[in-house]
Amino acid sequence: MEIIDRFLIAEKQSFFLLGPRGTGKSTLIKKAYPDALYIDLLLPDVFRSYSARPERLREAIYAQKGKKTIIVDEIQKAPQLLEVVHSLIEEKKGYQFIMTGSSSRKLRRAGVNLLAGRALMKHMHPFIAAELGSRFDLTNALKNGLIPLVMNSAGPEAALQAYVDLYLREEVQMEGLTRNIGNFSRFLEAVSFSHASMLNISNVARECEVERKVVEGYIGILEDLLLAYKIPVFTKRAKRATSSHPKFFLFDAGIYTALRPSGPLDRAEETFGAALEGLVAQHLRAWIDYRMPDCSLFYWRTNAGSEVDFIVYGKNTFWAIEVKNAASIHPADLRSLKSVGQDYPEAKRYLLYRGSERLKRDNILIEPCVEFLYGLR
């Protein structure tokens, strides 16, 4: 299998590397640290031995003379190991611990704060266009997503469906995060309609016929498993009343298209419009995590209904980005960007679309979406 270089930078100090299953955490770490002591907690016998006796980690490290880098894959499987890691770091013998994980719930409960200041927190995302280069295809990315596990398979569509069936449902049930997997399955379909939209929990609860509190718990599960996220409204120096509801996104465009039910009455442009916005969102999140950690991702929406899909705001960065799933641009498409420009003249404004020309109108850069995504390096 071809190994594609990722933009995430390996560190010299201890760090957590969190990301959904299949995003390439183990592949990246094994390539970056080929001589490290590697402990894979997904292997049943390894998991049993270390969960039964966490102090075994200390014994294994002491037995490896000269090895100072230790990788613990899927650390959330045995979070009690963190206390041993903490004590080993405190010995100041030059050990570097790299701990990967696909769930933040158990780590948070176990007290990742133990390692506060001693281990960085980094995140792994699906591929981005600039990593893939000529392998990137926008239509395929909207349909099947950019999860490495899916892209590297012989049949991406089948692999994507297996990811949804085996991971999103069975993994949740296996971890004991919910007792009623039928309700959770209905929730997954219902919440897919909220992708790239303001999250209305009451509507989702009504759609899947469960209580609002249950839906709030399910959304928490998706966030803990790093399978979904919310972006807040940009309110800094607001001149108008803004919405208070966050926007909801599934972590990969392919997961969204696999979960969303479709039928004869569904219009393809509706599905692919949300998928395109989600694809841009996942690129921006990856770019911020890999290269611009001082930036944060927001969206802008006034109570009057003006909305701009994304605001990227940081020390030296202020972007307002609107995404249109169309090959041509009409004057009405620029209205929200003009509004945000009135309130924030400092913002660099972009309109991303499916066309091929680069244009500039009213100081708004109109750019092909593919070009913009390739430019996030």
Characterization of the model:
With 377 residues, the chain is α/β, with parallel strands linked by helices. The protein folds into 2 domains: 15-123, P-loop containing nucleotide triphosphate hydrolases (Rossmann fold), CATH 3.40.50.300; 129-375, no CATH class. It is 41% helix and 18% strand. The chain has helices at residues 25-32, 44-52, 56-63, 81-90, 105-110, 129-132, 138-144, 148-151, 156-174, 181-192, 201-208, 212-224, 253-259, 268-291, 335-343, 369-375; strands spanning 15-18, 37-40, 69-73, 96-101, 120-123, 197-198, 228-231, 247-250, 296-301, 307-313, 318-323, 348-353, 359-361, 364-368. The chain has a 6-stranded mixed β-sheet with strand order 9-10-11-12-14-13, with helices on both faces. A 5-stranded parallel β-sheet has the order 2-3-4-1-5. Helix 11 crosses helix 12. The longest helix has 24 residues, at 268-291. The two termini are 24 Å apart. The model has no long low-confidence stretch (mean pLDDT 90).
